[in-house]
Every structure is written in C-alpha cells, then in structure tokens.
Amino acid sequence: MNKKEFVELVRSIYDNAEKKGFHKEERSEEREILLLTEEIMEIYKAFRKGNLFEQCDKDIPNYTYFQEEPSDIIIRWLDFIAEYGERSIEMAYDLLPKKPIKPIRDIEDACYRMTQYNLIFGIREKNFVKQFEIISALFNGYDYDLWESIKTKHEFNKTRPYLHGKKF
Asked: How do the domains of the chain map onto residue ranges?
C-alpha cells in the first residue's frame, strides 16, 4: 500500500467512526487501551475455542476470525491516529515496516506481547508500530493479506448501526 492509499484509507476509517458516533465524547488513553486489549482478547478467545480460522460471525463472505480481529486492532489504531491530523497519518505511514516481516504462527505469544505493549507504551507510536509488526508477521505466517482484510472489515463497518450497537 502506498502513502496516498494509506492516507485515504485512514481518512475513510476516521470519517466512518465519526459518522457512527465514536467521536462524540472525548477519548481517554485509558479507554483506548482497554478497547485495544479487548480486541486482542477476541483473537485469543477465538484461538482458545479453536475457531480462529473459521467463518466469523459477521456477514462477510470468506472472512475468518483471524482476519477480523487483527483488522479491528489496526482500524482502531488508524482511527486514533487520524484524530491528530494529516501529519500524524503521514508519520504513521513512515513508521510502518517497509521490508517483509518474518512470519510468525504463535498466536498465544502474539496476543501476550500486544497486551504487554499496551501496558508498557500506552497510546504511543511505538506501540502502534509494535502491534502492526506482530499482526503483519501473523498474516505473513498464515498467508493472508493484511491490507485487504482491513479494507474488507472497514467496508463492513460502514454498514453497521450507530456505535455498532454498543454504549461507546
């Protein structure tokens, strides 16, 4: 994905989150960390149930929990980054790894490390980069296209109700 496509995708994610009501109240770092951690735990929950590579419960054809949950993490990060403007979006792109990332297949370790990064780094660029690297490595390890999975989930999110049917 080139920089222009990345910027357009991030803007679209932010605009959709705004339309769906996710920007109505001020966002705290604590809540963002909890929501990111919840997404990580959804990956782990699917892993524990043994259905990580099965069709997810959303009405998205040929889309697994493995694709959905990590995509949610990246979408949440990109929405948060976009709140800080164009410069932050471009900086986020510049921080992304440019070389292929060595594949990993250890879901449990990946979830553990992402949770630890939330606690250590909070909502900082370093955490975004670390989590992106882990998710990229998982996608490489299981031969899925990360950006296509993110775009697919984003398109689905556009069809969802206000606040995706939740309180916040």
From this structure: 3-165
Q: Are 125 and 92 in contact (CB under 8 A)?
A: yes
Give the C-alpha separation, 159 to 143, whole Å.
Answer: 27
Query: Given pLDDT bands bounded at 50, 70 and 90, which one contains residue 57?
Result: confident
134 with 113: CB under 8 angstroms? yes
Distance CA 148, CA 154 (A): 10
The residues, any chain, with a CB within 8 Å of residue 162's CB and separated by 6 or more, are 20, 21
| Total-model pTM | 0.91
Per-residue tokens: 164: 């995706």
Look up residue 12 and give its two tokens. 């679209």
